[in-house]
Specification:
alpha+beta; 3-stranded antiparallel β-sheet; 3 helices; 120 residues
């Protein structure tokens, strides 16, 4: 089976003044070969999902207050640059969760969330 180079990597997803952080889970179902969009500067190609270039989880959607066809900006970020927030509480492959299960925090240097990131 193919191995994803993106799975588990962190994204900063911004809509207006709010930013959410999430881990990349998978690609598809419409486009899985458009690396020029993911790693370059191209716009997403037309697809059957109303042109979506990024599908987000319900948690990200709700945190950002998104409607079905809202536009966001997103970028890859390093884990060390991800502030503690709602995204640090769930997920089997989430380093925040794994570190708390093992009682370690040495891998993570806690950062204050930017002022535009509101805790729930």
């Amino acid at each position: 089976p193919a191995i994803s180079t993106c799975k588990g990597h962190w994204l900063a997803i911004r809509k207006g003044p709010k930013t959410a952080y999430a881990q990349w889970e998978d690609a598809g179902p419409f486009r899985t070969d458009h690396w020029q969009y993911v790693f370059g500067n191209e716009r997403p190609k037309t697809n059957m999902n109303q042109g979506a270039g990024l599908d987000v989880s319900p948690a990200v959607r709700d945190y950002l207050g998104m409607r079905p066809t809202d536009v966001t900006d997103w970028k890859f970020v390093e884990f060390k640059d991800v502030p503690v927030g709602p995204w640090s509480k769930l997920g089997d492959n989430n380093p925040f969760v794994m570190n708390s299960r093992h009682g370690t925090s040495a891998l993570v240097e806690g950062k204050q969330a930017p002022s535009n990131v509101l805790p729930r």
